[in-house]
Amino acid sequence: MKQNEAPKSMKVTPVSKTLSEVLRGNFLKVPRFQRPYDWDRDNLTEFWNDIRDRGDPEYFMGSIVVFGDQKEKNLISLVDGQQRITTITILLAVLRDALEERGESGPSAALHELIETRDLDNKSRYTLEHDPADKYFQYAIQSRLPDKKVSPVGVQQQNLQMAFRFLESSVKDHVKKNFSDNPSKAVAYLKHLRDCLLQMHFISIELDNEDDAYLIFETLNTRGKDLRTSDLLKNHFMRLLPAKTKGHDVVKDAWSEIVEKLNSSTYTVDTDSFLLHYWLSRESSVSKASLFVHYKNEIKKTNAKSWLEDLRMASKTYIRCISPSDGTWAKEERDLRESLQALRIFGVAQAAPLMLAVMTQYERKTISLKSTKASIGMIENFAFQFNALTQSRGGGGVANMYARLAQNTMECTNAQEFVAVFKDMRAKFSERVPDETEFTLPFSRIIFRNTYTRDRALVRYILTKLAKHYGLPEEVDIGALTIEHILPQEQGTETDDESDVGAIGNLIFVNESINGELGNKSFLEKKKIFSSKHNVYMDEFLKDATDWTDDQISDRGIELAKVGYNKIWHI
Fold first, then answer.
1. Beta pairing partners, 147
2. Is 0.90 topped by the overall pTM?
3. For residues 240 and 304, is the Cβ–Cβ distance under 8 A?
4. Which of 225, 381, 407, 486 is least surrounded by Cβ atoms within 10 Å, i.e. has the fewest?
């Protein structure tokens, strides 16, 4: 069966309906397999611009896909369209509140009946509900008397709050700008917006059952948002592992934990990137576009639970790799954390599968801390030379190298097997690193000055490695050290090469407490202050120098490059 082709036994019934017809007499549910509400400002702006000045209230809003509940006849679940229906519900609430503020209690109450109504048992119930219920959406937006003190928790509720505030301010600003001197016209405009919403036309595609819904979900896009691998994979897990107990949904709980873990880091972590790097660390080299198909082929009903649990555990390890500053590390893991932080500075996404594999085997106690530090340190050294310094284009070859090394790492069942992988890692990296000449030129031309701060993080990283090489103790707080220009910036020249006043040859770490004392002192006066008690650790070139000019800056940069290539970042 082709990917976009529905099963032949599936019964699909398209029906043309207005929003009013969709809402009246029905209760809508956003099923558990749907992704959270995620319309951003661009989506909302496009929606508002479409509706704001519309003269003809009839408006085609695309298709929605629904399936009926087997037990409750007038309950329908949204397979496709929940982003739009949720946004429309928010705007209806905004209009309800705006009409109430203008003394239009009757129209406001009538509008609210489309948001909250009574079921056949005469119990109050919201027309649009989430599974499980979203209390913020109910209390702060849908309620007849919204509770503005309720705070959003999690990404979905933050997006709901943002959408409500955007639409509320858009309506208020438009009314104020165009009808501030005519209250009756303001009310007429609000009612016109209401009519535009209620007379929107949808093609309602109605399915027979939930099984068909899971399959349809895989082939659909919602307006303005393509379905992502994470959306499809979550749906796949939910189809294979249905919730058996009310209030206990294994998939929803595990998936929420994964997403929340990835979203809790200091750095933005894309769920799809995690899923790609996880796959590459264990299975085979694939493109992002075909990733879901590969997951779907591997994950069956018999193994879905173990796959889900492994993904949950891997998300925690992944965050330690990608955002090490957010984690808790033992004292003996300091070098490991610093190497991972360096890789964060370099921004080398291709290395993530191998980092994840090595850290996973370390956490499983398959390999020792010593082997882990050596491996991550080697990845750091390679990435510094290959990516951060020479900015070589990795391409598919390097990405595939990282993936193969990661997969070989994950196949190890003991430390001895990993020894062979480590040797292979060194051999593969050695084949690709630049030679000393290729290393020296870009290294000596790394620049930091007041007028050029783009590489600040990289410069601090390099100065940290140099200072430690020349004796800086581990216990010194690197954050308390500042970058000192040996030749003051106002006395040097900006040449954008190795003799630039901001070049690495003119930079050194000093204790923040003496930064002001150094000022514009002469070179020899500064050297008297440079000492280990001020956390200044000089290299041999600087110790021997008696004068400091553009030539010394250039020559020192080249000397530091030699030390770096042969001793600090050596593979």
1. none
2. no
3. yes
4. 225
